[in-house]
Design a protein that fits this description.
Number of strands: 12
Distance between the termini: 15 Å
CATH class: Alpha Beta
Largest sheet: 8 strands, parallel, barrel
Order of helices and strands: EEEHEHEEEHEHHHEHEHEHEHH
CATH topology: TIM Barrel
Number of helices: 11
Number of domains: 1
Radius of gyration: 20 Å
Helix content: 25-40%
CATH superfamily: Aldolase class I
Oligomer: single chain
Structural class: alpha/beta
Strand order of the largest sheet: 3-4-5-8-9-10-11-12
Length: 361
């Protein structure tokens, strides 16, 4: 029997060859939102390395949706064309690829990290940021509160981004609804102080995300998987902070609206205590959501060894294991994990001398 980590998983019409996923990681290498040679090599090498699913870095649905002027985008046709060869190469290696659609909201308009990641005002190449409420999220500036008309425009921009993702050939779409970005700014009362239909109660605060899911489902093929990344908890002692029980409740609604997978990350407005951070520290969020809702879940957070990853699947704690920094250190982690766990490897023929296709003794 194959180790659990290397068992296939079907999500609608998409079959993943294993349970290993490349987590989204910003590269800050996309002037005008365009991907290029860096992304072909960066994402392509992980596909060569045997990953089951690649989720791209957060990809903005509008210029104002970026965190920096160097983030990827899907708001025009030139960006669709730029993504196509990257998508094709990943798929030619036997991997699947999802685009993570995103809007930074009130956390946007920053300089490149190499330049200090400070807030960029409009007169320095930035833009006016907008959020659920006029609440500072970076301690550097205060965004404007979105009007209801602007919210409807945002939903339409996400739907158009989803259409472009289909045109570019992506296998699936993920919505980034965590880490303090736009959707999180609405569903967490830490950032949402609205008094209209998009604020106040839990049901009102989750409306933007649910309406966006509905708009995307209406324009993509029925067979195309739709994923959502949530911040399962706010890492805050405030009584009105977002808690795991809220994520369970939201996941049930997302499932009803056609979401297939929820990745349970955490934080965005505040960080956990250092004593809380360690190997597998965010896995209980995915485990709880999976147990309470039955939805497919992805686990994240300092997962660094093949045995850790395999145990998560074997023990039913999650359905997918997302790796970030470990894949930066080792693009061939899946092939190495197969050798360690005794799974049949499937390295490209060009690399066969380093990763024999037979099972290790």
């Amino acid at each position: 029997m194959e180790p659990h980590l290397f068992s296939p998983l079907s999500i609608r019409s998409v079959q993943l060859k294993n349970r290993l996923v490349m987590s989204p990681m910003q590269q800050y290498s996309s002037p005008d939102g365009l991907v290029g040679a860096w992304h072909l090599v960066h994402l392509g090498s992980r596909a060569v390395g045997g990953i089951g699913l690649i989720i791209t870095e957060a990809t903005a649905v509008s210029p104002e949706g970026r965190n920096t002027p160097f983030d990827t985008g899907l708001w025009n046709e030139a960006q669709v064309e730029a993504w196509r060869p990257v998508v094709r190469f990943v798929q030619d290696q036997g991997a699947k690829i999802a685009v993570q659609l995103w809007h930074a909201g009130g956390k946007g308009s920053h300089a490149h990290p190499a330049a200090g990641f400070h807030h960029l005002p409009p007169d320095q190449g930035g833009w006016i940021t907008k959020s659920a409420s006029a609440v500072s999220l970076d301690q550097q500036h205060t965004p404007e509160a979105l009007t209801v008309a602007e919210i409807q425009t945002l939903i339409a921009e996400f739907a158009q981004g989803a259409r472009r993702a289909v045109q570019a050939g992506f296998d699936a779409i993920e919505l980034h609804a965590g880490h303090g970005y736009l959707f999180h700014q609405f569903y967490s009362a830490l950032a949402n102080h609205r008094t209209d239909d998009y604020g106040g109660s839990f049901d009102n605060r989750v409306q933007l995300l649910l309406q966006t899911v509905q708009a995307i489902r209406a324009v993509i093929p029925e067979a195309m998987p739709l994923l959502v990344r949530l911040s399962a908890v706010d890492f805050s002692a405030e009584a009105h902070a977002w808690h795991l029980a809220d994520s369970v409740r939201l996941t049930r609604l997302l499932q009803q609206h056609g979401v297939d997978v929820v990745t349970a990350s955490a934080g965005g407005f505040s960080a956990p205590e250092k004593s809380q951070v360690g190997p597998l520290y965010q896995v209980p969020y995915a485990e709880k959501i999976r147990a309470e809702t039955g939805v497919l879940t992805g686990a994240v957070g300092l997962i660094t060894t093949p045995q850790q990853a395999n145990d998560l699947i074997a023990n039913g704690q999650a359905d997918l294991v997302l790796l970030a920094r470990e894949l930066l250190r080792d693009p061939y982690f899946p092939l190495r994990a197969a050798a360690v766990l005794g799974a049949a490897t499937a390295a490209p023929v060009q690399y066969g001398r380093a990763f024999p296709t037979h099972r290790p003794h």
